[in-house]
Amino acid sequence: MNIALWVAQVLLAVAYLGSGVMKLVRSRAEIIASGSGNWAKDFSDSAVKGIGAVEVLGALGLVLPWATGIAPILTPIAAAGLVVVQLVATRVHLKINETKTLPVNVILLLLAAFVAIGRFAG
User: Fold this and answer.
1) Longest Cα pair distance anywhere in the chain, in angstroms?
2) What contacts 24, CB < 8 A, 6 or more positions away?
3) What is the pLDDT of residue 35?
4) Residue 117: exposed, middle, or buried by beta-carbon count in 10 A (0-12, 13-18, 19+)?
5) For residue 32, what are the contacts with CB-CB under 8 A and spacing of at least 6?
6) What residues have CB less than 8 Å from 20, skipping those under 6 apart?
7) Whose C-alpha in 3, 29, 48, 83 is 20 to 30 A from the C-alpha of 116?
């Protein structure tokens, strides 16, 4: 089980780190122009940067506390926070009728829930 949780944690961390860094380094206009960022039209520049920061912090929280043994309770909390991120992302995508990304949202949500439950259970 520990190996499965680590695999999920690393996959999630890579996905959220990539997504979060992209939101932090690219402008909102660039994200919208990419074709996969129509959701950003409904958010301010600072909100998009904030979402990126949350994703980067979540990615770090998935791995670093558990790996270092320093405040390991932060790992399942980070995973639970990313469940919330995906619930909101799913709602946003449904609101703008952008259904092609929903399978990715659901997979990320389920992986984050798996990590949260698995790590909270010990």
Assistant:
1) 43
2) 49, 52, 53, 56
3) 83
4) middle
5) 38, 40, 41
6) 51, 52, 53, 54, 55, 56, 57, 58, 59
7) 48
In whole angstroms, give the CA distance from residue 114 to residue 2: 12
Query: Residues 6 or more apart from 68 whose CB is under 8 A from it?
Result: none
Q: What is the dihedral of CA 16, 22, 23, 27, to 10 degrees?
A: -170
| CA pair distance 59, 21, nearest whole angstrom | 11
Q: Determine the residue type at 108.
A: L
State pLDDT tens for residues 53-66: 999 999 999 999 99
- Look up the pTM and report it: 0.94
Whole-number pLDDT of residue 105:
96
As a whole number of Å, the CA-based R_g of the chain is 15
Distance, in Å, from the CA atom of 9 to the CA atom of 85, rounded to the nearest integer, reads 16
Question: CA-to-CA distance for 83 and 85, rounded, in angstroms?
Answer: 5
* Element at 29 (helix H, strand E): helix 28-33
How many residues are recorded in the chain?
Answer: 122
